[in-house]
Design goal:
alpha/beta; Rossmann fold; globular; NAD(P)-bd_dom_sf
Length: about 325
């Protein structure tokens, strides 16, 4: 039996579909009944509705120990995909609770129930930062607590510390650190907002860059790592390092809509996060742009994928092909 936490998110939902297609015995955790509909819609998108009923759904929350206990009974392997993604500074406490405390709970149950192997989905946000004489960021790049990190990055780094604690207590673990993940079926949240915003005519782009990857590559690598003898390792899962401009223009071309016309300069995004802070304070709305996320739109870190390519002899799908697939399935 395999347990998947976060089965109603982008990675978890696609992982469930792939595992069920391969006739695995699957149990998935959900918090609210309505959230399951997102996963069900993904199965429908791929015309796999008949497979959806094979999933054993358990209502639980990774921060609620009592509800979580039943999910780990008679389980051999765990994919921990659940987590909170937010760059709103007001979510600092919730990020730490969900991503760090929630992961600690998952690790504890894996130890208690003698799980054979745990795969944890982290993020490139939890990687270290490049120094003056270092161009590429790898799995070995050291985390520098002295520089600015988002609350999200800190929470994902803290979650990884819980995974390594589990390893020290005898648990077989694997960590994957994906870049920005693109995949079909989730246009109204996370990275899907790239597509929905551009379709509506979002006018701006920046020349900063980051690492991107398709969801199919992420789950294929996770499954291969879980079936391998590899334990106690972390792997960055990125296909390409691209500028936001190139990615946004590619999405616009595939959607057949107008490309954004205006480059958002650093001074513009600096002004933008301050305006966003002002209005969110006055009207008690959720932050859309923080100081950290505004700065990240202009950064140029290069994330290396050499370790996973060498470990599995893996070749990634190009991001342009991923974008084409997302757009074609969404129509």
């Amino acid at each position: 039996m395999i347990v998947v936490t976060g089965g109603t998110g982008l990675v978890g939902a696609h992982l469930l579909l792939h595992l069920v297609e391969n006739e695995e015995s699957i149990r998935a955790i959900y918090r609210e009944p309505k959230s399951i509909e997102k996963t069900k819609s993904l199965f429908q998108l791929y015309h796999k509705e008949t497979l959806f009923s094979r999933i054993d759904w358990i209502q639980a929350d990774i921060i609620d120990v009592t509800s979580l206990a039943i999910a780990f009974k008679n389980v051999d392997y765990v994919y921990h995909c659940a987590g909170l993604i937010s760059y709103d500074p007001n979510d600092e406490d919730l990020l730490r609770k969900v991503n760090i405390e929630g992961t600690a709970n998952v690790v504890n149950f894996c130890i208690d129930y003698k799980i054979k192997k745990l795969c944890h989905v982290s993020s490139i946000a939890a990687l270290g930062s490049s120094g003056p004489n270092q161009n590429d960021i790898t799995e070995e790049t050291e985390w520098n607590p002295e520089i600015q990190h988002s609350d999200y990055a800190i929470s994902k780094y803290g979650a990884e510390m819980e995974i390594w604690r589990g390893q020290q207590e005898g648990l077989n673990v694997i960590i994957v650190n994906p870049g920005v993940i693109f995949g079909p079926g989730f246009w109204n949240q996370g990275s899907g907002l790239f597509f929905s915003a551009i379709k509506k005519g979002f006018p701006f782009y920046t020349n900063g860059s980051t690492a991107f990857v398709g969801v199919t590559d992420v789950l294929k690598i996770m499954i291969q790592l879980m079936k391998s003898d590899i334990v106690g390792e972390r792997f960055t899962i990125v296909a390409e390092n691209l500028t936001f401009k190139n990615v946004i223009f590619s999405i616009a071309e595939n959607l057949k809509v107008k490309k954004p016309k205006f480059e958002a300069k650093p001074w513009m995004t600096a002004l933008g996060w301050r305006i966003d802070l002002f209005f969110s304070t006055i009207f008690k709305t959720k932050r859309k742009l923080s100081k950290y996320s505004a700065n990240s739109l202009h950064s140029h870190d290069f994330i290396s994928n050499e370790k996973i390519k060498n470990a599995l002899n893996y070749e990634f799908q190009s991001i342009n092909d991923v974008i084409k697939e997302v757009v074609s399935l969404q129509k």
